[in-house]
Fold:
Amino acid sequence: METQITFDSYINQLKKTGITLKIYLLHICLVLWFIFSTIGHQSLSALAMILLIGVLPVVSAAPTHSPFSDITFQEFSTFIEHNFSSGISLATVLVVLFTTTSNPDLLNLHARQQNPLIGETAQVVSGWMRALARALEEKLDKNVDRLFKKSEQKPKLNVNQVQNAIGIKLDSLSKLLKLYPYDTHGQLQQPLKPLSEKDIEAVHVICPASMECQTITCSHRSILLETRDRDVPRVTLIKNMKIYTRVHVLSGKCPTCGTVYYGDHESSQQNGTEGGRSKFYSNFAKYLKVGQSLWVDRIFSGAVINGTYSFHASSASFAEFWNDTFWSTQENNMRKISRRQIWHTYVQESIRRVAKFSGHSLELLDELPIEEVTKHAFLSLGEGGVIRSAEDHFCSECTHVYKRVADRITADDPAALIGVDENHPVPILTGENAALAVQDAARARLNAETAMDVDRSSSPLEEAPIKLVVLDGVVMGPTHCAYQDCAQDLAKAHRGVFCVQHDILRGTLCRMHDCNGLKVPPSQTCVQHQNRWYQHAVRYGRQSLLGIRRMVRRSEEERLPWLPTFNRPVQQHDDEPTNATNRKDNYFVAPRFYCVETICAPCGAVIAWTLFDKSESPTQILGFLEAVYPTPELRPNYICIDKGCSVLRTAISNGSWEIWKETSRFIVDSYHYINHRTSDYLCRKWCNPAPLNGSAPNLVVVENDANGNPHYKRAFNTQVCITHFGLQLSILTLFLQACEQLNAWIGGFQPILNRMTPNNFKWFLHSLLFIHTQRVIKAQKDKARKKQEGGDDDDDDDDNEGDAEGIAIDRDE
Structure:
């Protein structure tokens, strides 16, 4: 016999089981779907299926934050009035409030001890709450008295009583704010979660920072609101690494001169032009616009600068870091920040840093693309590569007082080098002028017996401090025009090979040298040279370019037997330009500048930089020096170059030595000198960086050892000793020039710089060196201040200095 179950009996049976509402609705939908499917009512059956899907169990993320307390202000103010002093300040009240709301985990621990299980003891003020009270007491310091009413007689309470009293007040406040995980019956509801601050976030408005018009003729007129209500932009703002959406942006206008003031710049009509407007970058702007609807504060822009500087980070790398670290942890509708926005941020912040130090604001045409902004920024603020932050810099590592006579003259050979030839015979000069070297050694011994030697290469102004600079180059650079002997910027930054002038001249012609045939699209050559173009396209196509370049580089540098051999000549660093017979016979690819040449002080401060197009030749070095030091009073006393003897020889040949000999002397680094003094008399006689016999009193100083015996040491840190210890069995000492250390640091940016257009390359490198120099000088000032205060700062100072310069170095001789 079949059992007949009615619909009412089925529903009543479900009710008796005590199922949840969701399961109850699920059963109803199943019944409806079954009934409608049986009677053939398709529309009602479909409706039941939709309802069934709607109540199916799904996985959903539990909220990570709880809403902020919704108590009324009257309840809160009544609590404050009854528990605290009537003279309590608003700041103190807010500290107490946010101390309570910011520690949900501690409140959970405290509440658990107030609701013990069997065998546990309930505590009114747990140790957790006393610890919070103690921290609040330290925070408020003298204002802690305001937490007590006069009737509580706080001066008569001991430390434990004070903390217990504060703990009771905090416990009461947490319960008032509903920050208590237990109900009135002692049943745990759910642990407290961090409170969402969305409901109490401040409304941020981006507006001009100036209160009055800055134009002199306006006599401090007030700035009127220009933005109409319907036109107010809603943008995204990153402030303190937190994302705020729908932030209003307002602009103002001076009614007298018509200057429009924005949050990060000013815009005014250009004199004598119609429609053109100038844009003045405000050095003191609080926010910067870095995208169409994205603004950032100066903390974010400073982080971009610091991250790029310290970690050699590209814009793409920093964007990925920020998105993974900050964007992903915040609930917002903002898109991920892009590398273009990071690059805009770097440009905007670096412009303001350099301009602020220079004492003026950058003025450009309004609405320029970012490529033009970097171009004009370098033209206006780059000063041809001279780093103004190093101007008038003097420290103990790069200057010292002029000394006319040496403290101590020895009978050593003048070719002997400090740190190398003590108690060792000096290698003799072989070949031409060997007899002159012998005479110099004999004359030095005679001088040691008769009188102190005099430094004849010093400055005529004996009161002026002695200065030394170091030059060196790192092989890297942007692309430039491929036409012979032309180093102008490319007319087309991407895939272009000619500057504007030569693009007009040869843009439509075959890109083989000495061929004036018309190009046959899509190739870059005429009909006669089609095979050459297709060979190039196949060999250097996008798919194989990286592999080919890697293989070419490895075969040229490592010369491994299993790698293919390429017969094309490779120009090594310091080589002269390649001969005409070795040059390419086509204009397929734009060449790169040969190297970045830098002038820096021994302490690491960068003085200037430039680009050499074909080689690091002595002629170009002399031209660079003349551009940086145009007048005698600016020139350093010593110029250390790894090819100083070649520069000296070239200066003698072209006559420029007649100018330089009055103020300066060219010396070489120790590694060069040790290997070259046996074959080159000019290097041996004039370019010794630290003569052991004291014949250059401004390059060496006397120091006493532990036994009181005098000996010479270097006056300048032109060399830095980096020592590697291997299981205490051997020590490998490498001597690196100060400039080479700088260039090694710059080399870390080479993958980034190589992808940049020439304008971006120049501004990026200049701003990096500017910031680097500021940090080095600050580190030197901090070091001098700590030394003056008598503090022992060896360990900390070394760490800080390494961080500031971006290179790990040991300053000790």
Notes: Confidence is low (pLDDT under 50) at residues 451-461, 719-736, 794-813. Residues 556 and 566 are 7 Å apart (CA to CA). The longest helix spans residues 758-789. The longest strand covers residues 466-474.
